[in-house]
Write a structure and sequence with these properties.
Elements: H1 15-28, H2 55-67, E1 72-76, H3 81-86, E2 100-105, H4 110-119, E3 123-127, E4 132-136
Antiparallel strand pairs: 1-2, 2-4, 3-4
């Protein structure tokens, strides 16, 4: 399929939303650091949590897990600036805010998992090349 070779770089929001949410989260979210969401740099560039994970994002992903019969795996959670560049992430990636996670499920394809994530209120980007779903919380 043509979609299998593409990596999705879609814009889900305006630049000003990124900075508004960054400021908001820095003032209210404290010390939320579940290991599954740690930065993929594995300590090469940061301590694993340059920012905290948004609790609503985690709740929504847990809700996805509750609707699926098999484990949902967080492939990429929080990212530091350097790891985001290494992974070819957007300059305004919500991974850098702790408001995005890429997930996978061995028993569901990208479209099925994306539909479930959308049903619990997450914004999604389907990444057919990597076989995962980018999930984002913007509120």
């Amino acid at each position: 399929m043509e979609n299998e070779n593409k990596r999705a770089h879609q814009k889900l929001n305006e630049d000003d939303l990124y900075y508004k949410l960054k400021e908001q989260d820095e003032t209210i979210i404290k010390n939320i650091q579940p290991p599954d969401y740690a930065c993929d740099c594995h300590g090469k560039y940061c301590n694993g949590f340059p920012v905290n994970v948004n609790p609503v994002l985690m709740e929504k992903i847990e809700a996805v897990q509750g609707l699926v019969d098999h484990p949902v795996t967080v492939i990429s959670g929080v990212r530091c600036e350097m790891q985001n560049k290494v992974m070819d992430g957007s300059n305004l990636s919500f991974h850098k805010l702790g408001r995005a996670a890429d997930i996978q499920c061995d028993t569901l394809g990208v479209d099925g998992l994306a539909e479930i994530a959308e049903s619990v209120g997450l914004l999604v980007i389907r990444d057919y090349k990597e076989g995962m779903v980018h999930c984002q919380w913007n509120e």
